[in-house]
Amino acid sequence: MSLPPKRSLGIAAAIAAGALLLTGCGGMSEAASGSTAAANSKCASTDTVKVVLQWVTQAQFAGYYQAQEKGYYADNCLDVKIQEGGNNVSPQQVLASGNADIAVTQALPSMASREAGSDLVDIGQVFQKGAFLQVSWADSGINSIKDLKGTKMGSWGSGNETVLYAALRANGVEPTTDVNVIQQPFDVSPLLKNDVQSIQAKTYNEYAQLLETVNPKTGNLYQPSDFKVLNLNDFGYQTLEDAIYSRDSWLADPKHKDAATRFLAASYNGWIDCRDNADSCVDTVLKNGSALGKGHQTWMMNEVNKVIWPSDKGIGYLDPAVWDKAMQNGVDGKAIKALPQGGYRTDLNDAALALLKKDGVDVTGASYKPLTVTPTAGGK
């Protein structure tokens, strides 16, 4: 997507004029999967920021790759290094240890880390809605959360079960005794093999995998009508998923606070690209080495846009009431022992949105309409 100069260069011009601090961040490891191109020539100096994702390269993180691809980080005098996550990478640990300046991760694992002594803090809540599903076959008889009682249920664990457990307990189902919980791999095989009666899924990933699979009875792809989907967000169990986290101690330095603000603004420009030109972001993700095909990434990009847009108060906005509810879910789900003190701040996000709005950028996506994406066999 080609953007007007005002949008991609306006903040850089402000930087060059001295409106923002320009000092090096330093201390970055080189173990990153990607780095921005050379900074804009108008930059007096460039700040290096290392970012760790919570999973591998896919459209779930398209906005960051797009900001890199289109030069928004460079325009904001940033050299951003992106490190993939994965089975053996805990973004909370990487961030807490100081081996990254920014992490893209979820609220409850981050607050568990904070409870254990770290100073992780949410500075931009990108995903505005939750994407956790519990999926069963349409004829399973599982039509509500209460119906999970007495069933064999797949769950990823590692904190992903927390909001589900909170929902179960709120509906009179104790997950440790009333449900047989099976360790679920990061795929949909347990349901397809009928090893369990329901599995965890995300709207943008595993649910698509089901619809990309051939039904052996028909020879055609499975259809939504073949499954019963319980969307935890629709039941009021918000999870505060993918957000931009940093550390209180790192942000205490005005130089880092300034760099983080510019990182937010540039990343949001990337996400706005993905909202307005999803195909471009799919191509960018594939270019950066996604293991999943174009069809799957196209579905994912559309579903990820749905949990970001529209954002009535601007991308990255965090509603305190939603935070409080999510934290209570965390206590109920036993992911954290007590409601956290601190854990998020809104000033950097406000400053980033002010920079974008000054340049006339649409930060709310009020007119956003999702695309219609047809699943493809194997996500190809």
Structure description:
Helices cover 36% and strands 14% of the residues. Helix 2 packs across helix 10 and helix 10 crosses helix 11. Helix 6 links the parallel strand 7 and strand 8. The protein is α/β, with parallel strands linked by helices. The longest helix is centred in the last third of the chain and has 23 residues. The protein has a 6-stranded mixed sheet, with helices on both faces. The chain has a 3-stranded antiparallel sheet with strand order 9-6-10. The protein contains 14 helices and 11 strands.
Features:
alpha/beta; six-stranded mixed β-sheet; three-stranded antiparallel β-sheet; disordered N terminus
Strand elements, count: 11
N-C termini distance = 23 Å
Question: What is the structural class?
Answer: alpha/beta
Spatial strand arrangement across the major sheet? 1-3-2-4-11-5
Strand content: 5-15%
Q: Could you say which overall geometry the principal axes of the C-alpha atoms support?
A: globular
Describe the secondary structure blueprint for this structure.
Elements: H1 5-16, E1 34-35, E2 47-52, H2 62-69, H3 72-75, E3 78-83, H4 91-96, E4 102-105, H5 107-115, E5 120-124, E6 132-137, E7 152-155, H6 162-170, E8 180-183, H7 189-192, E9 198-202, H8 206-211, E10 227-231, E11 243-247, H9 248-251, H10 254-276, H11 278-287, H12 294-308, H13 320-332, H14 347-358
Parallel strand pairs: 2-3, 2-4, 7-8
Antiparallel strand pairs: 1-3, 4-11, 5-11, 6-9, 6-10
Helix pairs in contact: 2-10, 2-11, 6-13, 10-11, 10-14, 11-12
